[in-house]
Amino acid sequence: MAEKEKKTRKSENAVQRYFRETSGELRKVSWPTWPEAKRLTGLVLMVMVIMGLFLAMIDLVAKFLLDLVLG
Hints:
Layout: H1 2-11, H2 14-28, H3 34-70
C-alpha cells in the first residue's frame, strides 16, 4: 500500500499538490462572523491611524533635532 501512495504522489505535480493542500487547509479555517469582521476592521484602522500619528511625531522631532545640529 505504501508503494501505491508513493506512485500517486510522484505522478502528481507541485501545482496540483499546492491547490489540493490549500483547499484542505481552507476547510479547517474558522471564518469570522460579519460583526466580528467589522469590529476587527475598525480596530485595524484605529491602530493604523494611531501608529501614523506616532510616526509623524517621531519624524517631526527628528527633523527638529537635525535642523538644530546641522544649522
